Each structure stands twice: as C-alpha cells, then as structure tokens.
Amino acid sequence: MAQGKLAPVRKGNKDEGLWLLSFADLSCILIAFFVLLLSYSKIDTDKMKQVEDSTKPKEKKQEQSKTPVESLEAVSKKLEDKVKELKLNDKMKVLYDADGVTLELTENLLFPTGSATAKSAFLDSLQPVLKLVGSTSERYHLTLEGHTDDRPIASGPFHSNWELSAARGISLLHILKARGIREERMSVHSYAHTKPKTPYATLRGLTLEKARATNRRVVIRIN
Fold first, then answer.
1. Could you give the CA distance from residue 101 to residue 143 in angstroms, rounded to a whole number?
2. Which of 173, 207, 175 is nearest to 189 (CA)?
3. Residue 142 · residue 176 · CB < 8 Å
4. Sequence-separated (6 or more) residues with CB below 8 Å from residue 192
5. Which of 16, 49, 161, 175 is deepest in the core (most CB within 10 A)?
6. How do strand 92-97 and strand 100-106 relate by DSSP bridges?
7. What is the value of pTM for the model shown?
C-alpha cells in the first residue's frame, strides 16, 4: 500500500510582525507626549465658555439672555388692582383666561357717541392703566378692537359702524403709541356690530338700550 506524502510545512519569516512592535512603541511615545503636554498646559475657561455658547442653538441663547417675563396672570392682577384703585370698575373690566388678558373700556369712558376722538379728561384718568399696559413684556402682542351697537349711522363723518369701530381702534393705537408702545406690537380689529357682548334678540325698551350701551366698547387684548 503506497504511503501518501505529507505536505511540506511552510516556514514563516522570523522578521514578520516586528513592525507591530515598532507601531506600539510609537503609539506609547505619542500618548506620553500628549499627556505631558496637557499637564503643562493651562485651560482658558473664558474661551471654553465662548466655544460652548457658540455651539448652543440660537433660540436657547436668546432665551437665557432675556430677563424673566411677567406672566399674563400677574399682568391681569395688576390691572385689576389699578382699576379698583381708580374706582373705574363700572367703566372698565379685566378678564384673564386661556386667550390672555382682556381689558374692556366702555364707549362713554373714552369716546363721545358717534366719535373716534378720545376725551382728554378721561385720558388723564386712564394714564396709570395705560402705563401698566405699556410696561408689559415685548413678548406680548396687543390687539385693539372696536365694537359698536346695531343701530346704523345716520349722520356724521363715518358712513357705517365699520368705519367708526375701525377709527376707534386706530385712535387707541395712536394713544398707546404716544406712550411708547411700538407699532409692531399692535394690531387693530374692527368688528362694528357683529360681535355683541349682550345679544339683542327679544330685548325691548330700556333693556335694549342698556344692551346697546354695553356693546359699544373698545377692547385691548394682551397675549
């Protein structure tokens, strides 16, 4: 029976793999060098802070730089206290809800009937309230609304309740602008007779007249 031949054993080069030892030595030397370099270096905390700030999102940086914003609930409480102090509860109403703060002024407080020119006497008495409105955060927007009753305008400079309610809103805007509130924070909405606070259905006589007086108003919404 013939015997098979064994495959010859391949002898490797004895120098094969020596480069790994050299690479490992070089790596250790480099690590030691950088550790030594770091131990002698001084960290500039100010520059580190600048680098950290530069990597933060813009919105987050702006938020951190702002002073704390007074809540709308706190704004509402201040306005309520001021209205009570001035004894204007029957002419001004303050409401705080999910939509923000609503400051409602009756027509006879600020404007003569059928007019958009503010009464100077009442403007003086309203200064403390308007000052509080003007002191609210720039973050909040002011919506100025004009409302009328349902009676058509028969004479005067305005052709309809739409023009009158718009003119009153614009007049209020100029009043607030004169007290330092930027135009960009304000907008004017004219509603005429379309959003009555007290519905007219079934009302007659004095009750109807009271409802009309209630519905003639200007509103400042802060949100």
1. 10
2. 173
3. yes
4. 146, 147, 148, 160, 161, 162, 164, 165
5. 161
6. antiparallel
7. 0.69
List of domains in the chain: 72-222 (3.30.1330.60)
Structure tokens that stand for 158 in this block: 């305005």
- Report how far apart the first and last C-alpha atoms of the chain are (Å, whole number): 105
Apex CA 39: angle with CA 36 and CA 45, to 5°? Answer: 140
CA distances from 116 to 103, 107, 200, 203 (A): 18, 10, 24, 27
Q: Tokens in use for 218?
A: 């200007």
Q: State whether residue 26 is helix, strand or coil.
A: helix
CA 104/CA 122 separation, integer angstroms: 15
The whole-number mean pLDDT for each consecutive block of 10 residues of the chain, a chain of 223 residues, reads: 54 60 80 79 56 57 64 96 94 93 93 90 88 94 96 91 97 93 96 94 92 94 96
Q: What is the CA radius of gyration of the chain?
A: 38
Q: Are 143 and 220 in contact (CB under 8 A)?
A: yes
